[in-house]
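My main concern about presentation is that the manuscript never shows what a single data entry looks like. An entry of this sort, consisting of the sequence and the corresponding backbone structure tokens, reads as follows:
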Amino acid sequence: MSMGTTFPGPAADHPLELFAKTHLQNKILLPNDEEYKERQESFWSLYSKLEPACIVRPASTDEVSTIVKTLVAAGQQFAVRSGGHMQWTGANNIQDGVTIDFQLMNWVKFDEATDTVDLGPGAHWKDVYAELKKLGRMVGGGRNGKVGVSGLLLGGGKTFFTGSRGFACDDVIAYEVVLADGRTVTADATNEYRDLFLVLKGGSSNFGIVTNFKMRCFVCEKIWGGLRILSKDNTGAALQALEKFTPHVSEDVESNLLLFIAYMVEALVQVGAVENAPIYKELLSIPSVMDMCKMTTIEAIVSEYDPVPSGYYNCFYTLSLKNDIRIFNKAAELHNQVVEDLKALVPDGNFLTECLFQPLPRCFGQRSAKLGGNIMGLTDQPADGVLWVAIVIVKDPEQEKVAYPKLRAWGEAVRDFASSIENGLLPWVYMNYADKSQQPLASYGTQNAKKMKSVAAKYDPGEVFQKLCPGGFKISDVKL
């Protein structure tokens, strides 16, 4: 295929007919099938509930290759689903097309000789941790057990171990990838596909379909952590403690903090199993309404830590902000106004908002660089920062039509305020939290965007993963 390829689709036949000459008929679900309905219901966000003409569930890399060749030959649009956790419409499902669902490719295979694990793209992190716990091993993966392996890793992946091990993608040592022409290759840091290896570390679904992730393992038998619920009256004290905490993360890379302004919750996770670590001194001095911190395990805490419920319209907007109390206070002030607006919109109170802050110190990007680097552009972050997420959740589609614009207005107001402060708005937009209106790939910087465009053109000259697979953030949409 050449760069100017036009596809013959949408296919004239029903997508089911495309697979008539393959061995995949028993892997296909149609809208009247009970399992089709179950898979649709299993999506976390109501935004994802589009209705594909069929769902195809491969069980092996060879089957994924057959599916890709079949769909490309027919010009049939498709979507790819791992855990289905990216929240906006079209990210991991497709109306009237074919959804490739990795439900059956959920293996967790530990190799004792190399202390590595092979993960199928359809695995969920709670199951990964449960399996590795039996072997006394851990990987740096998702902090919510319901999240799928593939989406988190291809979006970079914030973990409880980012301070010491980099982002989740930094612990991936090889990717098995089905390319647009159906070929299967293994990309690692030293072989002929090392350019592909680099861009998959945060570059998402722009280059092929990853069918196996090989990750480094390590030992982490127990941690200390949990949720502390604070009174709303202590919001100011908590934000001040956050500002003081962030610069010291480089001195204690095993201590994590997530500060939610919702019901004023702070999540403390100390992966070195140090109870009441000194870095938490100021945070722990704030009186709590309830304190659930204890010695526990990663497997247990990712099941407890589920701040955003399923079965709603989940609206997210994210920014990287300078570690500056003025910006924190502005975000919190605007959050209060959004809550008041939603009370009028949703009189029964069936909505949820969160104003979430997480430390994003410069040492995170520096750690990634020491481990070989990724494509996300955090190496030269100009100041210690925080990763901020605005979240609004409503149940009714009519409420969503009003709530979503309020979320965007909130996010854009924080962006504009931060921009008025020197280095107040940091460049990076975290893909796994980003709204559809944002441009995480562009936020990686011009040189990294050029690399991604070059690699996409090399391995997918016909733009299959730009046009036939339209879901997610596309490098073709980035303007240089």
Notes: Residues 25 and 204 are 29 Å apart (CA to CA).
